[in-house]
């Protein structure tokens, strides 16, 4: 069963089309992440779902109920949709308890038990109820905002880049905390983010948008390994893109002859490998490397437990191409070192003629 469904949603601001024929299904209880470059329409789409904006045409349904179509729209406050903006948007003149209880019926005293339950749910101590927003850390403010959104027992939770203002370590821990809380509450969630790694780790379903269009949607691993086009491949992470000639399930390219996933593809095409599919070994007699081609290490991007080596591969045209290679070992080849490159797994084909 799908909690949220969008059918041919279109929105323009003057002559500019912000969204064009968006079709999307969000399964009940799942987590969907929407990614795309600035101006791709992802925040506009989130605001449409929330009821803050209205499409020029198309239909949005929630649990089978029409939220908006050509005949009318359900107001935002009647949709039972939780919304957590980027900055949390806490009321600065209200205590934590008053922020969490805002919108709940009854007096603050009558709401205390529910507020206490919500603070516990988001892992905040009970004595924080009397604090003011300016006395909280960034992560604590986001958890208060989440508790306030959960207070209404929403059918759907919308998160608009809620972790972007946090430092790196806190972002990762908050992302895991929020994902665990929403899963435990059984709340269907849609996250908008510009952070590809965040989207890949958070979501059950990943949606890639570009220039107001939905380019590709599916499980994160599927999109990472099998992107629809080169732009999507590069947007979701480092990628090695090589021209190749395809025949009988093999790609003939500057890295040698590589197996491909699409065995029916023929002719000229671009193939993709992720950096973790490349392996380096020293070019030395007796190294035991029987396959691969020679390249030269240019530099290293050190990032603690993982490093990305840029190696220069000679191309058939007489030039060279820099390839990113992941390296997790403590011993890194120095710049200028000649190494052999071998590959693991199958290359992904980006556009080719398929035999019939």
Please explain how this structure is put together.
The protein is α+β, with helices and mostly antiparallel strands and 356 residues long. A hairpin with a 2-residue loop joins β17 and β18. α3 packs across α4. 35% of the residues are buried. InterPro entries: AAA+_ATPase, ABC_SmlMolc_Importer, ABC_transporter-like_ATP-bd, ABC_transporter-like_CS, ABC_transpr_FbpC, Mo/tungstate-bd_C_term_dom, P-loop_NTPase, Transp-assoc_OB_typ2.
Which structural traits does this protein have?
356 residues, alpha+beta, Rossmann fold, OB fold (Dihydrolipoamide Acetyltransferase, E2P), 2 domains, 6-stranded mixed β-sheet, 6-stranded antiparallel β-sheet, 8 helices, 38% strand, globular, iron
Short structural description:
This protein is an alpha+beta fold. It has eight helices and 22 strands. It has two domains: 2-234, 3-Layer(aba) Sandwich (Rossmann fold), CATH 3.40.50.300; 238-354, Nucleic acid-binding proteins (OB fold (Dihydrolipoamide Acetyltransferase, E2P)).
Strand tally: 22
CATH architecture of the largest domain: 3-Layer(aba) Sandwich
Average pLDDT metric: 87
Count helical runs. 8
Residues in helix, %: 10-25%
How far apart lie the N and C ends? 36 Å
What is the CATH class designation of the largest domain?
A: Alpha Beta
Write the CATH homologous superfamily of the largest domain: P-loop containing nucleotide triphosphate hydrolases
CATH fold topology of the largest domain = Rossmann fold
**What kind of sheet is the major sheet?**
6 strands, mixed
- Order of secondary-structure elements: EEEHEEEEHHHEHEHEEHHEEEEEEEEEEE
Estimated share of beta-strand residues? 35-45%
Q: What is Rg? A: 25 Å
- Strand-pairing-aware structural class: alpha+beta
- Give the strand order of the largest sheet, numbering strands 1, 2, ... along the chain: 7-8-9-3-10-11
Unreliable stretches (pLDDT < 50, length at least 5) are: 286-291
Total number of domains: 2
Domain ABC transporter: 4-236
Organism: Pseudomonas sessilinigenes
GO molecular function: ATP binding
Keywords: ATP-binding, Cell membrane, Ion transport, Iron, Iron transport, Membrane, Nucleotide-binding, Transport
């Amino acid at each position: 069963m799908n909690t949220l469904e969008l059918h041919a949603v279109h929105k323009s601001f003057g002559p500019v089309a912000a969204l064009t024929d968006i079709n999307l299904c969000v399964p009940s209880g799942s987590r969907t992440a929407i990614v795309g470059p600035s101006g791709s329409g992802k925040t506009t789409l989130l605001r449409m779902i929330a009821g803050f904006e209205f499409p020029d045409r198309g239909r949005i349904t929630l649990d089978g109920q029409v939220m908006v179509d050509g005949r009318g729209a359900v107001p935002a406050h009647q949709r039972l949709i939780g919304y957590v903006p980027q900055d949390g948007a806490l009321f600065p003149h209200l205590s934590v308890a008053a922020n969490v209880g805002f919108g709940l019926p009854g007096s603050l005293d009558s709401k205390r038990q529910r507020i206490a339950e919500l603070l516990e749910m988001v892992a905040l101590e009970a004595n924080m109820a009397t604090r003011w927003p300016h006395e909280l850390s960034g992560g604590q403010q986001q958890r208060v905002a989440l508790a306030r959104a959960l207070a209404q027992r929403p059918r759907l939770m919308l998160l608009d880049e809620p972790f972007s203002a946090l430092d790196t370590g806190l972002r990762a821990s908050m992302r895991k905390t929020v994902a665990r809380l929403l899963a435990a509450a059984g709340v269907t969630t849609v996250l908008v983010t510009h952070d590809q790694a965040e989207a890949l780790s958070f979501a059950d379903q990943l949606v890639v948008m570009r220039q107001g269009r939905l380019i590709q949607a599916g499980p994160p691993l599927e999109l990472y390994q099998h992107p629809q086009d080169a732009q999507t491949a590069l947007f979701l992470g480092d990628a090695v893109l090589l021209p190749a000639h395809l025949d009988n399930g093999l790609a003939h390219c500057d890295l040698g002859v590589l197996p491909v996933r699409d065995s029916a593809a023929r002719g000229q095409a671009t193939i993709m490998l992720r950096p973790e599919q490349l392996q380096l070994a020293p070019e030395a007699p007796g190294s035991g490397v029987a396959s691969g081609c020679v390249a030269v290490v240019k530099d290293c991007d050190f990032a603690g437990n993982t490093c990305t080596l840029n190696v220069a591969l000679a191309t058939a045209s007489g030039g060279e191409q820099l390839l990113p290679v992941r390296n997790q070992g403590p011993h890194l080849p120095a710049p200028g070192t000649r190494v052999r490159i071998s590959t693991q797994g199958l290359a992904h084909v980006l556009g080719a003629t398929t035999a019939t």
